Amino acid sequence: MLVIHAEILIQPEHVETFLQLADPFVNASQAEEGNIRYTLMVDLHQSNLFTMVEEWESQEALTAHEQSAHFLKHINDTKDMAAAPLKVKVYKVMQLPVV
């Protein structure tokens, strides 16, 4: 399983539009094969700082997501709203049996 944390800093004047565009994007991403979790979170102390938390079953599922029409459209539609470069961390997770 892969876990992704993508930190997105949006220019304050674009936050409302970003959120309107994010809703259908998150819904489409959640419906993708191989997606376990796809959540947009907002920082409690900085209302224009968001973190996309994603969980994918495999690298293949993540690659398909990154090539999907809705992903490419979202990136194109929101790229000029960013106040800073996107910060992405990818974690490979090993699930342990619960004893």
Automatic annotation (TrEMBL):
One of its GO terms (molecular function) is catalytic activity. Pfam families: ABM. Residues 2-90 form the ABM domain. SUPFAM superfamilies: Dimeric alpha+beta barrel. This is ABM domain-containing protein. It comes from Paenibacillus nuruki. The lineage of its organism: Bacteria, Bacillati, Bacillota, Bacilli, Bacillales.
